[in-house]
Write a structure and sequence with these properties.
The protein is built from 4 helices and 11 strands. By secondary structure, the chain is an alpha+beta fold.
């Protein structure tokens, strides 16, 4: 079964699944809804188009944490200063500003694999990642990737597990960093073991309905002789 690889590397990434109002969270790894949304942007699938989006949601996703990143939090305000007045949603005046907590991952690098039996679909997605219809972002529009998401020869005729286990490290080694001896990999679980995540798209992104899936993580040995994959 073929597997499509994506390189998600950037100074800032955010993959929230439970964000509400002024609290914007991030998971420790890319969410499935976020990755499917990224593919939809590459393919030019409109947010109201469920017919073309649905085949993407059937793909099985795995994530390799090549560099997990550092959790960070932004303190942001919206509204007005104490001497100003804003109009609230109900039309009434207010002098209150709004504090918004924005969480994100700094300096993270993830190798994402999508496995499915529709080779033509994965091949089309691979081509469009190189020349996307709309701009691609890492969870939020302002979080742009620092390296191409498209990977040369990134469509592999092998299983998701096999590809993630053998693919070279995608992170650029820092001066203070040692190449890891093992890497954390997260797979979708078929027996409902692992962690429950509510990020399985069940409708178009305009309707925003998401279902449950289970994700199980494990460590895999990493061979240091495997070199970095340049962009």
């Amino acid at each position: 079964m073929p597997t499509l690889l994506l390189r998600l590397v950037g100074p800032l990434q955010s993959w929230g699944t439970t964000s509400r109002f002024d609290q914007r969270d991030t998971g420790k790894e890319p969410s499935k809804s976020g990755v499917i949304g990224l593919l939809a942007a590459a393919l030019g699938i409109d947010r109201e188009n469920w017919l073309d989006l649905e085949p993407l949601t059937r793909l099985s996703m795995g994530v390799r944490h090549d560099r997990p990143g550092v959790p960070k939090r932004d303190y942001q305000t919206a509204g007005c200063a104490s001497t100003d007045t804003i109009i609230k949603a109900d039309g009434s005046p207010s002098r209150d500003g709004v504090v918004s907590q924005r969480h994100y991952l700094a300096d993270a690098a993830f190798l994402v694999g999508l496995e499915g039996d529709e080779h033509a679909l994965l091949e089309e997605a691979h081509v469009k990642l190189m020349n996307p219809t709309w701009p691609l972002a890492l969870g939020r529009k302002s979080y742009v990737p620092s390296e191409p998401i498209w990977i040369d020869n990134g469509l592999q005729d092998a299983s998701l597990r096999e590809v993630l286990a053998r693919w070279p490290w995608i992170a650029t080694q820092r001066r203070w960093e040692e190449i890891p001896e093992k890497l954390l990999v997260s797979f979708e679980s078929k027996d409902e073991s692992g962690v429950l995540k509510m990020d399985q798209p069940l409708s178009s992104f305009a309707e925003r309905r998401f279902g449950a899936r289970f994700v199980r993580s494990e460590w895999i040995p990493f061979h240091k002789e495997v070199s970095y994959v340049p962009a």
